[in-house]
Amino acid sequence: MRLIYLILIILSSYSYGNVQRFILPSEVIKESVTVQVSLPNTYDHSDYFKYPVLVALDGSTQFDHIAASVKFLSTYAIIPEMIVVGVSTPSERIKYYTHTELEAFKNRSGRAELYSKFLQEELLSKVRDKYRIGPFQVISGHSLSGLYTSYLALSGNSKFNAAISISPSLWWDSAVLTDEYETYQKLKGRKPTKWFLSLANEPVEMKSGFDAMLAALNKAPPLNIDWHSAQFPNETHDSTPLIGNAQALKAIFSGWNAVPGIEVMSLKSLQKFYSDKAVEYGYSFPMSVHQFNVYGLKAAYEGKTNWGVEILETGVERFKSSEILWDSLATAYSLENELTKALEASEKALSLAKKNNSLFISEIITQNTTLKAKLANK
């Protein structure tokens, strides 16, 4: 167990990244939108690897904590590494987050399809042009935007593979989305979809709308939707996105971590494990830097150093610019008492760390110095 704690300490230093921001003028919704992009800390470790994307609606308030949760959870291979895209709230929030028009909000509601066109044809197109994103997309919304993500999950009329709905305003238009559920429940040809919905300690209409939807889902589960729900009675409507999104990510990617305990897997077993996930998610996720790092280090520290070396050697083949993986490979070689190989890997890690101005440079220098002393005294 002491070795497991050591791994956790090592990995905890690997949860950083960079955030970029730009303004996107939209022809569809006729306004300029602020877009924030959080890239994984491993983004520059290759020039080919493509990442899933998570779109965080109401990005001005929700982006930071969602991006932090993604970085933390993906560092430990609990979820995949993802690019997080925060989108500022549209000026007409009710207009674009609702799919039905009310007389009281005539011309100011019911334009969800227009907003979907903006997201899919303008936002995601722009992000795809600027960054390496893979064909797996998650969207998160809260309150009215949670109603919108609920609509996307059920209607099947979107390019998103998973939806998060935190305290969704399912009461809208006399709970019309629940009334329409029977139509959506029988929808055929829908791609595999994940959906998480949750509720905090909410007013009567929020709870009644949520309970009605749960009753419909439990009575007749929707075709090809893997849905999960949670309730957080100690949270308010405003505080619940913090815990709700973290729980949603863990639910959507339940069972993602191949070796959550102290057991270990060989590289061949890991590759099969994630290949099998393609059936569940409709997308074949390639192994990322943090997955190679977590599983390689764990195998090495748990006495399967040959497995650890193989995993990490494959990792550096695929991510040649990753100081993280080169440094971990040096650790695995050292545990095998292959000190010359360890120092060579450590020198590579140190060179990359200096080139990339890495946050990990002090740890890498420490291992490099230790390995040189061991070889000198050998």
Annotated CATH architecture of the largest domain: 3-Layer(aba) Sandwich
What is the N-to-C succession of helices and strands?
HEEEHEHHEHEHHEHEHHHHHHH
**What is the CATH level 1 assignment of the largest domain?**
Alpha Beta
Helix content: 40-55%
What's the helix count?
15
When the domains are counted, the total is 2
User: Could you state the CATH homologous superfamily of the largest domain?
Assistant: Alpha/Beta hydrolase fold, catalytic domain
Please count the beta strands (DSSP E, at least 2 residues each): 8
Estimated share of beta-strand residues: 15-25%
What is the radius of gyration?
Answer: 23 Å
Class from helix and strand fractions:
alpha/beta
Mean pLDDT: 92
Question: What is the multimeric organization of the chains shown?
Answer: single chain
Largest sheet: 8 strands, mixed
Pfam families: Esterase
InterPro entries: AB_hydrolase_fold, Esterase-like, Mycobacterial_A85_antigen, TPR_rpt
Protein name: Alpha/beta hydrolase
TPR repeats: 323-356
Describe what you observe in this structure.
Pfam families: Esterase (PF00756). Keywords: Hydrolase, TPR repeat. GO terms for molecular function: hydrolase activity. InterPro entries: AB_hydrolase_fold (IPR029058), Esterase-like (IPR000801), Mycobacterial_A85_antigen (IPR050583), TPR_rpt (IPR019734). The protein is α/β, with parallel strands linked by helices and 378 residues long. The protein contains 15 helices and 8 strands. The chain folds into 2 domains: 236 residues, 3-Layer(aba) Sandwich (Rossmann fold); 99 residues, Serine Threonine Protein Phosphatase 5, Tetratricopeptide repeat (Alpha Horseshoe). The relative contact order is 0.11. The N terminus is likely disordered.
